[in-house]
Amino acid sequence: MKKRWRLISIAAVCALAVLAGCANNGAGGNTAGDGGNAAPTAGESGSGALGKIKERGKLLVGVKYDTKLFGLKDPASGNVEGFDIDISKAIAKHIFGDENALELKEVTSKTRIPMLNNGEIDMIVATMTITEERKKEVDFSDVYFQAGQSLLVKKGSPITGIENLTSDSTVLGSKGSTSVKNIRDKVNGIKVLEFDNYQDAFNALKAGQGDALTTDDAILYGMSAQDPNYEVVGKPFTDEPYGIAVQKGNSDIVQAINDTLKELHDSGEYDKIYEKWIGKKPSE
Description:
Layout: H1 2-29, H2 48-56, E1 59-63, E2 66-67, E3 71-73, E4 80-81, H3 83-96, E5 102-106, H4 112-117, E6 123-124, H5 132-135, E7 138-140, E8 145-147, E9 149-154, E10 170-174, H6 178-186, E11 191-195, H7 198-206, E12 212-216, H8 217-226, E13 230-233, E14 240-242, E15 245-247, H9 251-267, H10 269-278
Parallel strand pairs: 1-5, 1-6, 10-11, 10-12
Antiparallel strand pairs: 2-3, 3-4, 7-15, 8-14, 9-12, 9-13
Helix pairs in contact: 3-9
């Protein structure tokens, strides 16, 4: 009888061990199943989120393809170039020792946060203003670029600043951008037409669908560089600090980004990148 109970006890212990092993695998302990390609999930911290990126072997970054000076895709070469791209390369180099360990994915102001939180990208480097509202959805790095909202008009326009806009004016903007909300707050009753991206908004301005296009001055300068018939007017009327966004709770990725930014500033490389794309030094 004692022998029989002893055998039953051993069998029970073995069964519990097997169940425990299955539970561990089901909790995501096996990264081979997804090939290490999945983006870090929200709330991963410590070495979890950054470790997953390192296991994959490349960084997935959401950038804009339509914003001259910051992220613009050359239709001939297929290359995407700009300030945000160079910052992304620096982050990849910090993490992997190779700036080319990087995959760029197109985002717009409307799609960037959903793509981040769906796990399609590891971070957003796309002229994204840090706001209290957005902090509820994502975590931000330190400020990596300081901009301010302004207006782009056709040369010779009677609009020389925000003070010339009225409820009879039509302003063009990008869906999901803070600039659309800001202009509505500052000019009561103004008509705003929203487009999926800045290039569509700029084309609409050139087609006469609006009196002005509004977004951050740094982006508008890129548009005026594309077509000198258009100019940026008036003083910036908002403060737009750009940050790099990651999923909430991924503090180790934020730390890696902030470490990269510090290295760039300390070495003087940040000033070189800034002058390369903006045409002046940050302090000017």
